[in-house]
């Protein structure tokens, strides 16, 4: 269980009896010397840096100034635990991609965290600590002064008189003890504004030093990049397999079929001719299967002629008649063409297999940096994008490219399958 | 005997084809492995027919087809037989669009296994016929069930002659009508076959392909 936060503690009745007010006071008390020291350091660095820039020695000094936020933030993150121990602030910095001071420096200078920390340091040094000094001074000195009245009276005042908070004089012990009593009563009262201010201060520190969004952004960026790399690698592998099958197995089968054909010319006798014909038939069947396999891996026409021609090609092959309305004036990035092609394949395959449709239509147009593709049919509907179907795979591939897939397929139909992908024209191939 | 320039990048297949062609008494003037060499060989030898693969070095894309189309551009009467690993309508259409669509062939590679049919196709292309692989035609026409039934006898004749690769002028001469009449017939053929693509040349090709199936 997390320790309760300062806010929660402030709501509790026994707040003044807990350690919280003291922790707050300690926090502000430590702020003052730290802030003062920081101000001096920053001033010295800034002054010396600017003056010495002329002789170049100043440049590293100014750089140090820029990076001054790093140690300050490290200290402040620890110190924050005094008043905000629930969720300790994590280090907002990234690991440099390489070892060595140059990489470290580059990473730090490019990070938002570094600049936020510098900002925090400046605010702390110039603004916060004097305010905190006033706060902690008031909270400790006013009741302290009141409480110590009898003591002052006994010592400095010689039992005759004492000046309370330098404001008024008391001349008797009852008065002095009354002042002390007032101080004792004031102390728990002041603990509340102290707690409130400390809570605000903790919030401010978090605002500056915690950058969870940024860290998540970085992680998401890296994840999408690696996903994209995986898809590209997968794509390259498909093309390699296609090439290997084409240049190897397919050519050999054609040559085999041709040799068998020649052999048949020379073997008119029945048993042999029949066997050769049979062998040739087998070779041909293997070729047809291989051709279809290759088509499913990566169709050649997609590489050579682009998405439009490839969609025409699958429409030609579809057992359900397909009306086409394509407006794809230029080639698109390979990854986009490929993902969209396989998406349309899957959609048309579903139309043929499940929809019972008698007609389908494919529309595709690229405009304003987006490719919009729509596949419709007049079938019975009920298609489902989830549940481990091919459509899910299609949606994944499209989402890698920053696009999305919408399927509308009410029971009774019709089904409409619509995808959008950001696209840019591919560089000329 | 045909004088042939052959382009095929797979050595195995190239040697096999050379053997096959020579076996049937044809002369292979050059058997090359790249599109560039193909262009050079055709310029040098002026063959009766070019037999080429689609996919060739250096890009292993459609260099063979491109080279063939360029050669047709230079010499529209040069017969070309393209062997392809795939049925690709775009390839077939471009080929049939080149010159006046006569003396071209687009066959799946595996047809060479049927050696006699292959040699016959070769002969027909070199004689000016248009030969399209039945697989291509089948694919194109899957959705157009019996489209020819709607045509009149005269339109059938016109389409038949066009399918042989004849120009409007020669169709007109053969049928003893004017060229304008041929165009009119062709227009009504397109309408009846529901071929409403924008590019007139492609419509012609599709009409021809339609006929080839029938």
Automatic annotation (TrEMBL), chain A:
Keyword Cell membrane in annotation: no
Cellular component annotations (GO), alphabetically ordered: membrane
Coiled-coil regions, chain positions: none
Entry superkingdom: Bacteria
Keyword Membrane attributed: yes
EC number: 2.7.13.3
Gene3D superfamilies membership: 1.20.5.1930, Histidine kinase-like ATPase, C-terminal domain (3.30.565.10)
Keywords from the named record: ATP-binding, Kinase, Membrane, Nucleotide-binding, Phosphoprotein, Transferase, Transmembrane, Transmembrane helix, Two-component regulatory system
Bilayer-crossing regions: 24-48, 54-75, 118-142, 176-199
GO molecular function: ATP binding; phosphorelay sensor kinase activity; protein dimerization activity
Protein name: histidine kinase
First-tier enzyme category under EC: transferase
UniProt-listed PANTHER family: NITRATE/NITRITE SENSOR PROTEIN NARX-RELATED (PTHR24421), NITRATE_NITRITE SENSOR PROTEIN NARQ (PTHR24421:SF10)
UniProt domain Histidine kinase/HSP90-like ATPase: residue ranges: 335-425
InterPro entries xrefs: HATPase_C_sf (IPR036890), HATPase_dom (IPR003594), Put_sensor_dom (IPR025828), Sensor_HK_TwoCompSys (IPR050482), Sig_transdc_His_kin_sub3_dim/P (IPR011712)
Source organism (scientific name): Streptomyces venezuelae
One Pfam family per UniProt: HisKA_3
Reactions that this protein is recorded to catalyse: ATP + protein L-histidine = ADP + protein N-phospho-L-histidine
TrEMBL record, chain B:
4-aspartylphosphate sites (modified residues): 53
Annotated GO MF terms: DNA binding
Domain of life: Bacteria
Gene3D superfamilies: 3.40.50.2300
Sorted UniProt keywords: DNA-binding, Phosphoprotein, Transcription, Transcription regulation
Pfam families cross-referenced by the UniProt entry: GerE, Response_reg
GO terms of biological process kind: phosphorelay signal transduction system; regulation of DNA-templated transcription
Protein name per its UniProtKB record: DNA-binding response regulator
Origin species: Streptomyces venezuelae
């Amino acid at each position: 269980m997390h320790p309760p936060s300062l806010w929660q503690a402030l709501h509790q009745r026994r707040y003044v009896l807990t350690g919280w007010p003291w922790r707050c006071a300690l926090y502000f008390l430590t702020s003052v010397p730290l802030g003062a020291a920081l101000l001096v350091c920053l001033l010295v660095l800034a002054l010396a840096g600017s003056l010495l820039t002329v002789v170049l020695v100043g440049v590293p000094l100014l750089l140090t100034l820029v990076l001054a936020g790093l140690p300050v933030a490290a200290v402040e993150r620890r110190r924050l635990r005094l008043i905000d121990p629930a969720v300790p602030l994590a280090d907002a910095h990234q690991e440099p991609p390489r070892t060595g001071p140059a990489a470290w420096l580059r990473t730090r200078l490019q990070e938002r965290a570094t600049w936020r920390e510098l900002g925090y340091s400046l605010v702390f040094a110039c603004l916060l600590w004097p305010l905190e000094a006033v706060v902690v001074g008031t909270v400790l000195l006013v009741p302290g002064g009141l409480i110590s009245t009898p003591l002052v009276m006994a010592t400095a005042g010689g039992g005759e008189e004492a000046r309370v908070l330098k404001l008024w004089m008391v001349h008797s012990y009852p008065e002095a003890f009354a002042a002390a009593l007032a101080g004792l009563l004031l102390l728990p009262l002041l603990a509340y504004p102290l707690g409130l201010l400390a809570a605000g201060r903790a919030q401010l520190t978090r605002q500056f030093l915690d950058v969870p969004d940024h860290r998540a952004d970085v992680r998401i960026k890296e994840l999408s990049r690696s996903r994209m790399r995986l898809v590209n690698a997968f794509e390259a592998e498909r093309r390699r397999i296609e090439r290997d099958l084409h240049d190897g197995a397919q050519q050999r089968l054609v040559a085999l079929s041709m040799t068998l054909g020649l052999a048949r010319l020379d073997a008119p006798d029945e048993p042999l001719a029949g066997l050769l014909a049979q062998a040739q038939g087998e070779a041909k069947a293997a070729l047809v299967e291989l051709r279809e396999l290759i088509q499913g891996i990566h169709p050649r026409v997609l590489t050579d002629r682009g998405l439009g021609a490839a969609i025409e090609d699958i429409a030609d092959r579809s057992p359900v008649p397909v009306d086409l309305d394509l407006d794809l004036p230029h080639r698109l990035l390979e990854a986009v063409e490929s993902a969209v092609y396989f998406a349309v394949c899957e959609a048309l395959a579903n139309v043929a297999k499940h929809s019972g449709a008698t007609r389908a239509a494919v529309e595709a147009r690229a405009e304003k940096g987006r490719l919009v593709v729509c596949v419709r049919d007049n079938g019975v509907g009920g298609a489902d994008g989830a549940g481990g179907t091919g459509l899910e795979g299609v949606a994944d591939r499209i989402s890698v490219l920053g696009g999305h897939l919408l399927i509308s397929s009410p029971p009774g139909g019709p089904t409409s399958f619509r995808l959008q992908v950001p696209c840019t024209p591919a560089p000329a191939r | 005997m045909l004088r042939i320039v052959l382009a095929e990048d797979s050595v195995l297949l190239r040697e096999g084809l050379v053997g096959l062609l020579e076996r049937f008494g044809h002369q292979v003037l050059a058997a090359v492995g790249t599109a560039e060499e193909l262009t050079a060989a055709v310029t040098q030898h002026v063959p009766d027919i070019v037999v080429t693969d689609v996919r060739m070095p250096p890009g292993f894309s459609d260099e063979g087809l491109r080279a063939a189309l360029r050669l047709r551009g230079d010499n529209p009467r040069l017969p070309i037989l393209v062997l392809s690993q795939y049925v690709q309508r775009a390839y077939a259409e471009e080929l049939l669009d080149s010159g006046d669509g006569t003396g071209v062939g687009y066959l799946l590679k595996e047809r060479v296994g049927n050696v006699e049919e292959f040699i016959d196709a070769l002969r027909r292309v070199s004689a000016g016929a248009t030969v399209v692989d039945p697989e291509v035609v089948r694919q194109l026409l899957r959705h157009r069930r019996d489209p020819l039934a709607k045509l009149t006898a005269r339109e059938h004749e016109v389409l038949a002659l066009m399918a042989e690769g004849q120009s409007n002028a020669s169709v007109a001469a053969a049928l003893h009508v004017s060229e304008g009449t041929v165009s009119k017939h062709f227009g009504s053929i397109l309408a009846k076959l529901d071929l409403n693509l924008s590019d007139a040349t492609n419509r012609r090709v599709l009409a021809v392909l339609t006929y080839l199936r029938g």
